[in-house]
Amino acid sequence: MVRSGEEGAGLDIVAWAKQVEKLGAGEILLTSKDADGTKAGYDIEMTKAVAEAVSIPVTASGGAGTLEHLYEAVVAGKASAVLAASIFHFGEIKIPEAKAYLKSRGIKVRD
Predict the structure, then answer these.
(1) Helices (H), ranges, the chain
(2) DSSP-assigned states of every residue in 40-64
(3) Is residue 1 in some structural domain?
(4) Strand partners for 60
(5) N or C: the chain end with fewer CB closer than 10 Å?
(6) SS3 101
């Protein structure tokens, strides 16, 4: 997407991810414009497609609303990491709570 996500760039997301990896990107921050801010969950299908297509880390972004969403992005979406904003900014979930939850589900987290 271009123009603040208002206009499609005409690129396939998986092909573009492979290209940026080839150009030397060390990781990809992947945000779903459709899911961002919804708190309805990450775009797992998109995240998984990109994560499986590249060998660099992919961070899922856009849509986190529950602790389970964070877990699903890593397990089902194959994300190396997750980004969440609204749930933390509005105090719905505390960062230590999210880390403890993920750790209890077997996900490696930074202390």
Answers:
(1) 13-22, 44-53, 67-75, 86-89, 95-104
(2) S---HHHHHHHHHH-SS-EEEES--
(3) no
(4) 30, 82
(5) C
(6) helix
Residue 26, both tokens? 């060390």
Any domain includes 2: no
Look at residues 61, 27, 68 and name the one whose alpha carbon lies nearest to residue 47.
Answer: 61
C-alpha angle with apex 13: 108 to 64, nearest 5 degrees? 40
| Token couple for 13 | 């997301």
Q: Encode pLDDT of 30-59 as tens digits.
A: 999 899 989 999 999 999 999 999 999 999
- pTM of the predicted model over 0.90: yes
Q: State the residue for tokens 């964070």.
A: 70
- CA quadruple 7, 73, 63, 99: dihedral sign: negative
Q: Which residue reads 């899911």 in tokens?
A: 35
Residue 28 is part of which domain span?
13-104
The C-alpha atoms of residue 81 and residue 96 are separated, in whole angstroms, by 16
Q: State the DSSP H helix or E strand holding residue 82, giving kind and residue range, or none if neither.
A: strand 81-83
